[in-house]
Amino acid sequence: MEAMGSGAGAQAEEAQVHSAMLWSIQEAVQRQTLQIGASACGATAVVDVLQALGITVTPETVDHCVRTSLRRNQAPLHDYLHSRSQAGATHLQLVSGAQQASGGRVVGRFFGLYPRRRLKLVPWLARWIRRGAVPIATMNMQRAVPEGEEIPDAWHHQLIFGVAPGAVFMTNPLDVDQVRQMIGEEERKDEERPKTMHLMIPAAYSSGVTFFAPRDSDVAQELLSSSDLPLL
How many domains does the chain have? Predict the structure, then answer.
C-alpha cells in the first residue's frame, strides 16, 4: 500500500481542522425553525440553539424570554426611526433569553468581530462546535451587499449548524454564507460603487458570534473564561 502523499495528507488535515457539523444539511432542512415572527430572527435562532442542545421550548416562550422589540410602524417619524434602531434583539437579549427559556440550564458568551479581529474564522468556529458549543452569528447585512442587490434594512441573527473549508452553514434561511467576506469588508470603502442615498440609523447591535453551551459543561466554563479576540 502506498503512503498518502504529503499534499493529500495536508488537504485531509486542513479539511478536518476546518470542518465541524452540529447537523447534516439534510437534518438542518428538517429541524430548522423558520422565522417565528416579525423582527424575531434572534428568538428563532435561540429556538434552534436549544433544540441543538436537546432542550425543547416553544417558540412563543423563547420569543417572550428574548423580549423581541418591534418596529413602531404607526408612530410619528422620530419615534419610528428610534424603534428601527432597536427592532429585533441584541446579543445580550439572546444570552439572557436562552438562559431564561432553558430554566438556567444554558449559558452564552458573545465574541465581538468588529472592530476587526485577528482571527481565522472557520477553524475557530469548528473548534468550538467540536467542543459542543452552539453558535449564533449576528451580522450587519448592509455590508458586502452583492452587486445589483438592494441594501437590506436590518441586521440578522442565524444559527451556525456547521462549517467546512471556505463555508459557514446557517439556518433561517438555510444557507451557506461567506461570512468571512462580510467581516473582511466591514471597513472597506469601495469608491467605485454607485452611491445611493440612505438614512443612517445607529443600531443597538454588535456584529460577532455568540456561543451557547450547557451551564455545567466544561465548554461553558472555557467559553466564560476566554478572553476577547485580539484586535487587528
Answer: 1
Amino acid of residue 59 = P
**Residue 7 in domain:** no
Question: Cα separation of 138 and 49, whole Å?
Answer: 14
Give which of 206, 8, 57 is closest to 47, Cα–Cα.
Answer: 57
| 211 inside domain | yes
DSSP letters spanning 130-173: HHT-EEEEEEETTSSPPTTSPPPSSEEEEEEEEEETTEEEETTT
DSSP β-bridge partners for residue 155? 140
Dmax (CA) of the chain: 76
Cα distance between residue 203 and residue 219, in whole Å? 31
201: its cell numbers: 440609523
Question: For every one of its 232 residues, what pLDDT tens digit does the chain have, with 9 covering 90 and above?
Answer: 445 556 666 566 667 778 999 999 999 999 999 999 888 999 999 999 999 999 999 999 999 999 998 655 565 765 555 445 556 799 999 999 999 999 999 999 999 999 999 999 999 999 999 999 999 999 987 776 777 877 766 789 999 999 999 899 999 988 755 454 444 444 454 555 544 455 566 666 899 999 999 999 999 999 999 999 999 9
- CATH, residue 72: 3.90.70.10
SS3 for 199? coil
Task: Find the angle CA(74)-CA(76)-CA(77) to the nearest 5 degrees.
Answer: 105
Taking the C-alpha atoms of residue 50 and residue 210, their distance in angstroms, rounded to an integer, is 13
For residue 93, the enclosing domain spans: 19-144+153-187+203-225
| Amino acid residing at 154 | A
For residue 8, is it within any domain? no
